[in-house]
Every structure is written in structure tokens, then in C-alpha cells.
Amino acid sequence: MLAPMWAPVLATALAVAPLAPFAAFAALAPTQAWADIPAAASTSAAEKTARQPPKPATDPVTNPTSLLPADALTHHSGTFGGHKIAYTAKAGTLILRDEAGKPTAHIFYTAYTQDGAPAARRPVAYFFNGGPGAATAYLHLGAAGPEVLTFPTGNPADGANATLQPNPDSWLAAADLVFLDAPGTGWSIPTDPQKARDQFYGVKQDAKAFAKAIQLWASSNGRLESPRYLVGESYGGLRAIEVANALAEDQNILVNGLVMISPALDMTLLDTANDVLAQAFVLPSFELAGLALQHKLTLENAPTHQEDAYTYALGPYLSTLVGREPTGDAANDFYDDVTARTGLPRDVVVRERGRLQPEAHDVRSRDGRLYSLYDATLSIADPFPEGVDNGASPDAVLDGFTRAYGSAMQHYAATELNFRTELSYSLLNMKVNTAWDYREGDNPIVRPIPTLRRLLALNPTLRVFIANGYYDLVCPYASSRWVVEHIPVGRNRIGLHVYPGGHMLYTRPDSRTAMAQDVKAFLAP
Q1: pTM of the shown model
Q2: Would the N or C end of the chain have less CB density within 10 A of its end CB?
Q3: What is the reported pLDDT for 525?
């Protein structure tokens, strides 16, 4: 999941500007404010005591880690990939510590391990989502876990009536699974909220925290020799690359593979407001969505349409965008082509001068329906058909039915995993998202591809699996393809897979099944 507020945060990072006021305010600890007030010489002992900052509270309201229950162990069986598997589930927390040994965060995890499988040969897949600020319930209950949240047939945007069911497509068919929530998401709690931004809410800090959590789980469960895979969605793509690097540098652990679903591989290539390549990359997704809405796209003809759309977008379309703005007949021909390919109203295409901004309300709204950035074939009734600022325009996926993953996780953990807590499960924490630091020192870290190049060169057996949805306008498949085509070493070890669906392509049962089968082949030792 890539939260919609990444664009302004990214712009801040690229400009190497100060962080948002919220983050700066949150960094000021109350004890610092009190310490700056000197006591007057005539102040009595009682008055001095009254002016001291309050002692750290032990009330659960102000100390939420006290509401985390003990680790829970349960035993289950299920049929996955056509085979019945007995497995053990453990839901609990891993404690991260600073150099002095003081706890800095409690990391919530859920691990599923096949009973009786040889540990040295059984792969382990470590999962995280993106955002930043998204919890792992999306991948856990959406794609890979033993149970899956399903939405009503014929009404995929109905999250209120979603139900949990056994997941025959669980990746347990191929590997043991460990789902990890980032600090500030799910039930992962930093011990000192005032220090959380500096400790965890940044590209490098985040990668180091995940690397340590993975090392803790692997070492405490005797799995350091197991084949290791990292699975990340959206910003989790960038995160997977950085975590693999941190595992190697900080924990001396090399991974066997990366699985990246709808990945943000290079943030600049997703910035449709400022980057001309990003503008070209969304066009094929618009085109395939338009074909699907007209019932002209099939599994058989999709590869041909993908290739044609990509060739046009990176050829005539991009050449027109980077050249002098067309006029006269040339302009009419260009706007006619874009209109025909996308199915968007011609007046919108002309007003945007062919540079389609996916988040723009006039691009997403047509015929009383408001289409999603995360799946350009999904729509809801437009609550603002008369027009509204782009930021006030809701998204059918992010703001709608996928919110059900949060309450589903709370229910599933309590009833199936025996992990019960009064704490709400933080599915998408926008405070984490807006506080995120994309920099290392003064350098923005929005292009992890050099790190991926190094990993592929240093580890000659490292393999990469990339999955994209046809209709994703947030992390379009064309951007993944372009990145892969420009990897000089190890390109033959990168597989690019495209499925019907959007950013969370796994919400479509057929695509979830197809991806699970492809991943099973990828994970096979």
C-alpha cells in the first residue's frame, strides 16, 4: 500500500527541506520543556515538587505496550495449493533495543511454520507492507496467509460485508510465513513516541529495524540456515531492497530472493506532477483499464495490448511530451490518440494537455462515477460530481473497502490466534506517513535501484519476483518494466509478472490464485 500523501513528502525530500511541522512538534519531549525553566532561589521544596514534570505513567492509557498480551501459540491445519498442511501459528512481539540494551519498540509479528518440515530446507518468507505507515494485514489477510478476506461477488467495493474464509492460495504451500508490522502500525509500538521519528520513521532507520527483527525471529527459532525471502508491497518494494541491504551489512544475513508486489522501485518515477517519465508510465494502465471497462481485454489479448500500450507510451507519447507543445492538426491528432487509448473525455485530455494527472478529480470523475487511483476499473458514486479539490476526493480502494482489513485482523487475531488486546489495530497510520524522512543526511533516498544493482552483483544467486496489476495508477506496471530493462547485471534473474487487477491485485480471486502459483514456483528451493 502506498499512501496518497507520498507526493508532497517526496517533494520535500527532493528539496532537502525541513520536515513537516507535525514531526518537528512531536519531537519536543515534555521533559525538555520543563528542564529549560530554572527554579527561583526562593522557591519552597513543596513548590519545586509541584513544578516537576510528572513521573512516567504506568497507566495502560499512557503506556500502551502494557496492553500487549503474551505471545500466543496455536495449532492448525489447512489445504493449500491442493495439499493438506499441519502448521503452528505464533502471534507475539519482538523487542528491539538500543545500544544500551533499552527497549525501543515492540514489533508485532505472526509466524506460520509447517509442522515437521526440515528447517534447513524449508524457505521462510518475511512480509511487510508499505505506505509508509501501512500494516501488514493487507498481505496477511489479502494474499498469503492461511485465511483471506473475501468481498461479495459482483460488488467488490463492499467492505462492510466482507468475510474471512480459508485461503487455498496461501503461500504456506511453499514456505513458512512471518508477517511483521512496522513500528507505529498494526500492534507494533515504539516505547518512546517522542523518539520514534528519529529511531524508525525514515528509509535507513526503518530498514535497520526490520533487519534486526528478522534476525531476532530467525535466531530464536533456529531458522538462520533456512532459505530467506523478503516480500514487500508498494513502498514495501523500496523497503525490501533496503532491508536486504541492511540484513547483509548489519546482520551478516544474505537473502535468496525478493518478492515485490506493486512496488515503488523509484519514487521519482511515480511523481506524475513533475516527472515526464512518470507521466508516460501511467498511460498504459489508463489504456488497459479503458479496454477492460469496454469488455475488450482478455487474458489472451492482454499481452499484445500491454506491449502496444508500452511502446506507444515510451515512443510517440513521450516524444510529444518532451518536445514543443503541438499545435493545429498535430495537437488534434495527439489528443485524439490519447482519448481513443484511454477512454477519457476528450475535453479532459485537452485541458490536461495530454499530461494526465491520475489524482485529478476531473480525470477520475465521469458519468457520475469516481474511479480509483489504485484500480482504474473500480468506481463509486461520485460524492462531488460538481467538482472538488483533488485532495478532498476519496478513493474507492484506500478510503473504502480495504479498511475492512483492520477490523478483520483484530477479529482473526483474537479468535484464531488467541492474541487478544484492547489496542486498536493501526491499519494505516497517516502520522507515520507524513513524518517519514526519505533522506540520509542531506541526500534524498528515493532511488534504491543502485542498491538493488549492488545486491544483484554481490549475490550472484539473488532472484527477484515483481508483480503488478494492469490497472494500477499509483505504481504502474510500466515503471517496473522500465526499471528492469535498465538493470545491467542480473536482469535475467528478475521476473516481471502482470495480472488483471489494481494496486492490490490480490483482492481479485483469479489474480490471487495466479500470483500464488507463480510465487510457489519462485520459492521452490
Answers
A1: 0.88
A2: C
A3: 63
Distance (Å) of CA 300 to CA 211, 293, 303: 41, 16, 7
Grid cell in block for residue 221: 527459532
Tell me the C-alpha distance between 169 and 147, whole Å: 9
Closest CA to 94 of 7, 206, 184, 181: 181
- For every residue of 434-472, which 3-state class applies, written as one string? HHCECEECCEECCCCHHHHHHHHHHCCCCEEEEEEECCC
pLDDT reading at 466 higher than 90? yes
SS3 for 250?
helix
DSSP 166: E
Q: What is the mean pLDDT of residues 100-113?
A: 96
Cell of 140: 496477511
* CB hemisphere CA count around 113 (13 angstroms): 21
C-alpha span between 189 and 443 (Å, rounded): 28
Q: Over 60: is that where the pLDDT of 42 sits?
A: no
- Asked whether 232 and 240 are in contact (CB, 8 A), the reply is yes
Q: How far apart are CA 64 and CA 465, in angstroms?
A: 38
pLDDT of residue 58: 47
**Positive or negative: CA dihedral 297, 298, 304, 309:** positive
d(CA 211, CA 182): 11
Q: Has residue 357 got a pLDDT over 60?
A: yes
pLDDT surpassing 80 at residue 212? yes
In 3D space, the residue among 275, 232, 230, 277 whose CA is nearest the CA of residue 254 turns out to be 230
- Residue 201: which of 105, 67, 304, 265 has the closest Cα? 105
Query: Rounded to an integer, what distance in angstroms lies between the CA atom of residue 374 and that of residue 471?
Result: 7
> Can you read off the three cell numbers belonging to residue 463?
532472484
User: Any bridge partners for residue 207, and if so which?
Assistant: none
Convert the pLDDT of each residue in 509-522 to its tens digit.
999 999 999 999 99
3-state secondary structure of 422: coil
**What type of residue is 487?**
I
| pLDDT for residue 2 | 60
Ranges of H-type helices in 294-317? 302-312
CA distance 393 to 366: 13
